[in-house]
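agent: user wants the full assembly modeled, not chains individually. Plan: 1) parse entity lines 2) check alphabet per entity 3) run joint structure prediction 4) return tokens. Steps 1-2 passed, two entities, 1548 residues total. Proceeding.
--- entities ---
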Amino acid sequence: MNQKTNNFKFQKEPIHWKKSLLLMALMVLTSAFTFANKALVLPVFSVGELQTTLTGTVTDVDGTPLPGASIVEKGTTNGTQTDFDGNFSINAGANATLIISYIGYTAQEIAVNGQSTINVTLQEDASQLDEVILVGYGTQSRVSVTNAISSVTSEDLVETPAIGVSQALQGRAAGVQVTNTGTPGSEPFVTIRGLGSFGNNSPLFIVDGVPTSSLNNIPAEAIESVDVLKDASSAAIYGSRASNGVILIKTKGGKRGKNTFSASSYGGLSALPKTLDVLNADQYRQYASEAYDADPVTPGNQIYGALQDGNFDPSVDTNWQDEVLRTGVWQNYDIEASGGSEKATYSVRSGYLKQEGALIASSFDRYSLGLSTNLNLSDKIKVGQTFNLGLSRTMGGNGGDLGLAVRMTPTVPVFNNEINSYSEITTSFDGQDSENPVRQRLNGELLDSQTSMVGSIFGSYEIIPGLTYNLMVGLDHSFGNQDNFSASVPTGSRTRLFSETRKNRRKSISTVVTNTLNYVKTIDGKHNFDVLAGYERNRSTFDIINAFTINPLTDNVENLNPNEVEDLTSFESENNLQSVFGRIGYDFDKTFFLSGTIRADGSSRFAPGEQWGNFGSVSGGINLSNLSFLENIESISLLKLRASWGVTGNNNIGDYLFQTGLLTDFNYVIDGALVSGTRPARIPNERLQWERLSSLNIGADLGLFNNALNITAEYFVNESDGLLVNVPLPSSLGATDANQTRNVGNIESKGLELTVGYKDFVGDFNWGVNLNLFAQLDQQVTSLGSVDAIFNGNYFGQNHNRLVVGEAPFHFFGFRTDGIFQNDAEVAAHATQNNAEPGNIRFVDINNDGQINAEDRTIIGNPNPGIELGADFNFQYKNIDFSVFLNGVYDRDVYNVFRYQLEQQARLFNMSPVVLDRWSPTNPSNTIPKATPGFTGNENVSDRFVENGAYTRVRSMTLGFSIPGSTLDNFANGSLSKLRLYVSGQNLLTFTKYTGYDPEIVPSLNGGTPNAIGFDTGRFPQPRTVLAGIQVQF
Amino acid sequence: MKINKIILAIAVILVSIISCKQEELELLDPNVIVPQTFFQNSGELQSAVNGAYSFLQSQGMYGRIGFFLLDNLSQENLGTDALQGGLKAFMDYTYDPSLGEFFTYWQAAYRGINSCNFVMEAAESGLIQNVSQEEIDQRLGEVHFLRAYYYFNLTNLWGGVPLPTSTAASETGGIPKASQEAVYQLIIEDLDFAVANLAEKANTQQGRATRGAALALKGKAHLFLGEWGEAKSALEDVTGYTINGVAPRDNGNIAGEFNDESIFEINYSQEIGGDQWNATGNGVRETTFRGIEYSPLNFANIIVRPSLLAEYENDDPRIKAYFYSAGDAFGGTTYAPGSQLPISGPVAFGDALQDGNLPLVFTLSSPAWRKYQNLDTRLSDGFEYSGINFRVLRYADVLLMLAEAENELGNSSTAVDYLNQVRDRVGMPNYGTAEMDSRGYPVGSKQQVFETIVHERAVELAGEQHRYYDLKRWGLAPQVIENWQSGKHEFLPIPQNELDGNPDITNEDQNPGY
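--- prediction returned ---
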């Protein structure tokens, strides 16, 4: 709600702090005068009115009573509040107008018009301006926030069926980038405001106050709200863990009021929207025999061996993509009971979800349980708990076998009945030949099971009014089992003599104990203070055991065979964090805001003397709409300007990095016998520190037309420094490891975010739109210490990206191509290039030295998105609702490894039909080189495989129908309060020029390093899904 | 009342803050041994010291590059077509700073030094527990000797070099180049420590550094510096060794390991095995490539340079002792030139096995190294990595160094006496006799005695990595070594990797001429 109660006249001139005392005095006087004035005027209005007694109930759109809602007769001081069941009674004039309001809901004005009963349904406020949002270790009214915080509601989170919160966040908040894969159960790649580290970029996820990592085991249905702390100022209260942003998640709890029981379910079908074009068997035979200049049907030559499994059968034409793809069935069930009395609230929910992947033998299923209670033991003492349990199983790994299906030759059948075994090509070049993907999927089992628990117990005690002590003890615990069994392959080029069993067992336990003291005080009615001090201890342990055995006797036992142990290892680690923190918030009459945060973290990840680090922030804002010159402009309901600056850290750098272990195998011979020699594995950097981020954020919030239109804009300047870089040591130091990790890297980035929300009510027709936009204005590496450049990535033994000062992180780095050599004269005229001959790719001599070599590599693309967009449109007409949710990523490149696979023509893989139009002396193509066995340089990292990765995707589209309340009353004796049926589609359309499966590419994280960003190696694409669902509430 | 509650609440928080345990923040990696918990007994200390030896044995030094480097630079070797380009560049003097083999040697030596520093730092910081002071002193003596030996080689190859004496990486990440004087100063200091703390050979495990080794190396260092008196005094203290009764063949074969002449050896073992491919000092890799690389039967990379053979007097029995030639016994049998050897199927005598390598005519004019080969008794050794120890310091070298020191001090006759001890062992005529005068080795002046020392060191110590250093310090390299450029080839170029990774060494610090 707008707090426009101060009518003081404020001079339109710059604020001078010197004048603050005068100002305050003025305000007090003016308010007093205004109040007195009203007191004089009011009785005049009520003269002559006929007073009647009105009764009614105030509920929300779900029919839940709203206790404590305010009912005021317009223009008077006459008012009341609803009771616990949402009922009210008020004496008012027959022609009066009532204003019904409730925090978080849009106030309504209702003319009495002689009615005696008025039932009011309040809509939740379209603006988020009065909502209470989560900030670190507490809550804050949205109106007093001076930082960059995005909030996402539970409705948005479940609009698109998602496994967990990170998937559900995609496109929902400006600056929060979520990249999904289509592999069931896989964790998306989440960054906030782009890459800020060469290493781990994952935000800190806090569930009900507990840092957690097992996000996929908490269903989106269990979540009440998500608040994303994007700038260093809002995140600074989390100190050394906050540089990548903080995502605060609140799980559902009970609400005071009627007990409700609700259930929802959906089911649907899921399949890939696209397959890649490849050659059929006839085309492939023709291509291969021409390219390799040999007859594919005559036994004994290389092509013959590559084409089929022993026997030439011209009728075989296997479409391998069809063989490994399918339509998967999705199902989801969720039940929830919640409610509460004045003294206690509770919520119990449970769910089951199963998603079958679009790839055979892949699925994710999960049972989940959530439990939350809150008790008011007395006026001063409150206790409660939260608990979320998830048991999930992921089957079938990461879906990389799709790449095999694309490359596998179509001339080989899936199964060879003669040898009763899966078919394979019979000759192998180098072990990188494609394998039968059906065998890969079905001849064994890969199962990953995870049990995770996140929960907390908390209590608070109000020591004196306004001063509260809070204690929270939290636990994040997960057990994981991976069981991987590969059956033997008795014959063929992929023979595996014995079955193999690999298992790992891992356990992580993280505990947190948080003590805070919070003091809230208002002085003279205008000076609002909110002070927080806290102390926290966090301890995390992890351990893992890996085992690998073979079984020469049987394929029927999938368990470990103790007699044939190939590998048995274990690893454990621990880290502790101890922290002291505080925050002070001050506002003057909800108009001028100031706040500051400080945190000191001590971490076991650093050497003694380097363990403690300080982080902090300051921020301020001014709510211009509370000032006189804007106050009278009706259309502007809010205009707030704010700025913040803060410093945070990133301690996501692994345990024990400042230490070294000893290696004991520097052996020697003494007295004729082998003796062990021991020395350090590396020279540890005992001055190792947190990576640090300093961030400036400037924002503005504008609410127009009674907050029907809300606009938030943010501008940020982020500077990450002290990023970890492996710096080469002088070899004369003689260390075993030639590198040392040092805090020498910097990244700077600047960006803009824009969020626009609009909601309109026109009688029976409501519609709304939420748009969010993120633009990365500038992003570059500004230091790598003494290192000139770091090359990363593995593209068939070549690096495909680079870190270098002055350029975007992990930009694609390779050759520029300049068509195809058409004849010998062109070859002769060109710079010297290995294997230059007509029909091969011509590379550009960037440095003009007459030679094509590594020095001619240059920047050929940038995988970091420049612009990201989310757009959610909602329409409701009477009982029918319709929504469309789009998201888009623009101004970024993708390195299409599939394209390389399908056009390389260096190997006997299956190819794209484009190779049929390849260069030949009679077909002077300038895009597809000639076919040549072996590597010719055509496969070099080059702009040939870099594509525009921009896309716009219809992420979801939903049409729902709610049975009208009047019908429900006649049904099930009125116990049913809501029944909604809907159909929904996901990924229905994708607009892109990208030629691969899916432009949305999750980088495989190598030790947390996103160095494969934008590199499409065949992460499983996202399926298209069609669902039907039902939601009921009793 | 209220105030009491506030105090209570603050007390609760204070108590929990005070209970903040600093030790919880000081965690050690439980998955590995860490230095903080090492050095807790004699075995652990010994293991850290063993690590300092391991790099002598590694591929960069006597595993492969070390012997090639010095034998090729001295041009005692002649490469065949099979010789790898980088190794051939040593003998052709066509190398540049980017030559990887330089870096491999450099890295191995500095890793050895790093291991020495690791042990010395542990002692200085009092980490070593439950070990007697006597043993600590002995072990520290070993690492001081080893560090001196590594630096001795580095400074003779490269001149002024970085001189790290600790394992810590500096703030800037750089280590400046020290002057050769500073390097030698550290070498002498280390050796003085080693002499004072090491036991004599009789009380030392085979393969470990001894007091005699430290004295011999100290004498050599002084000799190289032209400090003749100090050289003499140190070398005279090398006692308990003799060349009498030691066959010259027994310097560089299994049978002669740790005999009475041997002062310090780099240890290998055929029985323990392993090879040096891709090795950086770690793993069970207890053989050297010397056996297979110099073998006439397999790799056949190297033959003996005719100019070295020409240095020998025709009747010198050391020719037979050091070199194979036609008519020699192989595996206990004598084969005529051109005959077949009964190994791995018929192999043409002297032919290289590798495709396209040289057809080697095995005659007296192109003999192969017998020193450090065991082909006379075990034919298969020509195809295997060798387990023969390298003899780094031996008493004949001490005698010849004493001769040189005495000659420079003006005691020519004493010098000739030392020389003749070495002659007597192989039954060659003594210097100062008419016979030797007639052979062109008169000893009538200091210069003439010097020339006999040059001759005798060349023939006695051939193929033992002495001659390159000798020729350089004597100033004879420009006359003897083909392709030698004065002003450039006095020192090797500092490896490019060092320039790249060491901000305190720039191209301006590169040795002249590169």
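agent: reporting back. Chain A is about 10% helix and 45% strand. Chain A touches chain B through 66 residues (CB under 8 Å).
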